[in-house]
Amino acid sequence: MMERPAPPAGPYLVAGLARSGQAAARALAAHAGPGAVVGWDERDSERTRRAVRDLAAAGVRCELGNDGTALLDGAGCVVKSPGIAPTVPLLARAARLGLPVVDELELGWRLDRRPTVAVTGTNGKSTVAELVRAVLDRAGRRPAVAGNTTFGPPLSGLPAQAADLVVAEVSSYQLEACPAFLPDVAVVTNLSVDHLERHGDLRAYGEVKRRIALREDAVAPAVVIGADGAYGRSLARDCEARGAAVTAYGRHRAAGHRLEGRRWAHGRAELDVRAAGERLELVTRLPGEHNARNALGALAIADVLEVPREVTLDALAAASAPPGRLEVVDEGQPFDVLVDYAHNPEGIRASLRAGRDLLGGRPGSSLRVVACALSVLVTRQRREMGRAAAEEADDLVLTSDRVLPDDPVNELPPGLESGAREARRCEVVPDRAEALTRVLCRARPGDLVMVLGRGDRHGALDARGRKRHFDDREETRRILRDLTR
Q: Which of 93, 371, 378, 379 is the most buried (most CB within 10 A)?
């Protein structure tokens, strides 16, 4: 295990009171006492007021509204939630004052002493983390998934008794405020266009991702890297030069764990793999080239952790994807429906190509798609998302990430529609529930409907800041039940 520094000295100001901030505040209260912790959030909403009440019951004082800079007086360290950009006034002033600023992930890692496998990358993080958890569980370990994930707690909120090994999903938003974080096994799946609204360009985004494995003065002892992109191969060389044990995976000849063939039949993928010189067949229930790479990455990680190969293969053959990743919705309809989180250009392309795999052998069947893009993304990324969806779909409906028909700004953010129309005709239906209804009503026996962009995430904000529950899977089931009555 890597040696971990103690948390910076307090008193502590926790910035952001969503899931990560609440976990950080509770962890710090246990570490230093509730009197050494103050919480802050710029939003004064029903959700943040509930967080304030919950933390007050634990002895932690919180404030809402304004920019929070007055709370820096007397603070020794700021612990930020991932969603708070380093440019906000609070963090900018903390930097001028020379106060240490760390992400909740860094805090959780410093407070924890369990071995940690950390997974980052533009796409595949959640699936690789879940596959590794399944393998370790089959091997008799007690793994838990935590971090930047909807199916596990923030790292600082993981109970001590929950696991003996942590698989952490890690985002670039977290890594930008992690000055020391280096896991025992660092995993980088890939790098493609995403989060340009935060990092500016692909180069800066890639530099932040590198921090999971390589620092100026240190390198993770074991690194597993997807080798199919130039970024991954360059990072692998740099880590190896610094003394890390590097395992590369993918189709590229530089990969020691190499995918040499893939077949999809009878609801499963059969992968021809050469792993550290040994030929083997890896079977997975997950469709698509991207999931073949995800399964291969999980095999590489398991090999690094010295899990017996037969245990790994059995576990991967039985494993399911995490919620909202190519998740089946079945209400007895004569066509297939999948809900997926694909939310960037390469993710959309990979997801829809997996859909083409599933349609193989169905002459005349259509791939019908509902796609969206977040308004916070830069126009270039939204345009590429629209083009990716249009190039792969037979029938494309673009919709909003919002769900409320009475929202006066309920319309598509710029770029998504223009990018799609560069490739093919598409329909624009801003209300998400109506978009789902139209596509499901048009589906014919043998078709595949894919609903992209939200996966297992639910809730949406209208122009007035109200949050209302909306889950693509639940809404799709409701529509299908109405159609089949």
A: 371
278-284 vs 327-328, strand pairing mode: unpaired
pLDDT value of residue 463: 46
Q: Which residue has the higher pLDDT, 161 or 123?
A: 123
Reported as a single tens digit per residue, the pLDDT across 410-453 is 678 999 999 999 988 899 999 999 999 999 999 999 999 999 99
Amino acid at 7: P
> 327-483 falls under which CATH superfamily?
Mur ligase, C-terminal domain (3.90.190.20)
CA distances from 425 to 100, 241, 418, 422 (A): 51, 50, 10, 8
Residues whose CB is less than 8 angstroms from the CB of residue 153 and which lie 6 or more positions away in sequence, other chains included: 19, 23, 146
Supply the residues annotated as catalytic.
125, 148, 195
pLDDT tens for each residue of 202-223? 999 999 999 999 999 999 999 9
Q: Provide CB contacts within 8 A for 372, sequence distance 6+.
A: 398, 399, 400, 401, 412, 416, 432, 452, 453, 454
Query: What is the per-residue pLDDT across 265-321, written as a single tens digit (0 to 9) for each?
Result: 888 999 999 998 999 999 999 999 999 999 999 999 999 999 999 999 999 999 998
Residue count (the chain): 485
**What DSSP line would sit under 153-219, residue for residue?**
--GGG--TTS-SEEEEE--HHHHTT-SS---SEEEE----S--HHHHSSHHHHHHHHHTTTB-SS-B
Dist. CA 165–CA 133, nearest whole Å: 9
Superfamily of domain 112-318: Mur-like, catalytic domain (3.40.1190.10)
Helix/strand/coil for 367: strand
